[in-house]
Amino acid sequence: MFRVDPKTVTRWAKAGRLTAIKTLGGHRRYREAEVRAHLNGGGQS
């Protein structure tokens, strides 16, 4: 969806750059607006 590897998004969450919401099944969900803001606002290293 964002042309970013899912593992990259997971790393961003572990680094505290994104907020992850964990489901009961153990999957992580991310707010679309937060991911888009991160992509548009830079912050990538």
- Unreliable spans are none
Number of domains: 1
Helix content: 40-55%
Number of helices: 2
Alpha carbon gyration radius:
10 Å
- Rough outline: globular
Q: What portion of residues belong to β-strands?
A: 5-15%
Terminal-residue CA separation: 20 Å
What class, by secondary structure content?
A: alpha+beta
**Biggest sheet: strand arrangement:** 1-2
Instruction: Determine the oligomeric state from the structure.
Output: single chain
Give the mean pLDDT.
84
Q: Compute the number of strand runs.
A: 2
**Main β-sheet, in a few words?**
2 strands, antiparallel
The ordered H/E elements are HEEH
InterPro entries: BldC-like, DNA-bd_dom_put_sf, HTH_17
Domain Helix-turn-helix: 1-41
Protein name: BldC family transcriptional regulator
Organism: Phytoactinopolyspora alkaliphila
Question: Your description of this structure?
Answer:
InterPro entries: BldC-like, DNA-bd_dom_put_sf, HTH_17. With 45 residues, this protein is an alpha+beta fold. It has one domain. Helix content is 40%, strand content 13%. The protein has helices at residues 6-14, 32-40; strands at residues 20-22, 28-30. The longest helix is centred in the first third of the chain and has 9 residues, at 6-14. It is globular and about 30 Å long. The model has no long low-confidence stretch (mean pLDDT 84).
SSE blueprint:
Blueprint: H1 6-14, E1 20-22, E2 28-30, H2 32-40
Antiparallel strand pairs: 1-2
Pfam families: HTH_17
Domain Helix-turn-helix: 1-41
Protein name: BldC family transcriptional regulator
